[in-house]
Fold:
Amino acid sequence: MKNKVLITGNLGFVGRNLTDYLDERKVEWVGFDLKEGFDIRNKFDLDSACLVGNFDTVIHLSALTGVPRGNEYYKDYIDTNITGTQNLLEVSKKYGVKQFIFYSSSSVYGGADKKLKETDPMNPLSIYGITKVAGESLVKNSGLKYSIIRPFCIFGEKYGKEFSVIYKWINQIKNGHPVTFFGYGKSSRGYTNVWDIIGATYVVYLMGDSQLTNQTINLGGSEVVSLYELYEIFEKFCGEHDIQISRTVLPKPDYDIKNSFADVRKAKKLLGYKPEEHFELVVRKILEKELI
Structure:
């Protein structure tokens, strides 16, 4: 019988979608989020939460995200994503947590012109990616039974994601500014709907500490979309609704990964993972919700 689940970062983009999903399935969970004053850098508060929680599963989503901001505010990212993760691991071990699910990132790879698989070398190009590599190492050496999830470019129509290019462009359009467009738009991403990610996370949770122990799993989308193709979706939608859109072409920054898409064969084998193909449909739903 499963006990309560501790979810760090429950008020973030993935966290809010995940907790909705768990609520629908009557899974009892407790959140620990900075937006409510709970900071994973505060080991005392973490200890207090786990002392009374009787958790056998921890899903660790809490992290500072966003590559450009990570390079600018590197100390905050290091303190939260590395020190905070270590605090949580120590407390989890102290109170006998049986299953630790850690959200890493595709940023650990650094990008490549091929589908990336879990055994490919890690070569992060950003402070954020470096903190996720460090987090993975801490998890693997914690002595806990773990599952590491590496999501690729998550998007979704519910709750938004402030640092994603989709919402960045939406906010620029709302404010009457051109959208920022790096290089020639040839960079590409394997966009992954948050609901595909959440469904797979739930399967990992259900499989528990014995059936899926100490595995690292890519969760990516089935559609690879270039930046220019994404702009074309925006441009077409805005044209249909008489919304002004233009772009400012900027040099591609050093930290920007050219291509990033996942080999998900391992997830398909272990989890029955089957990401849907509905990128343009979901983007249009987001635009309709945000711009109309």
Summary: The two ends are 46 Å apart (CA to CA).
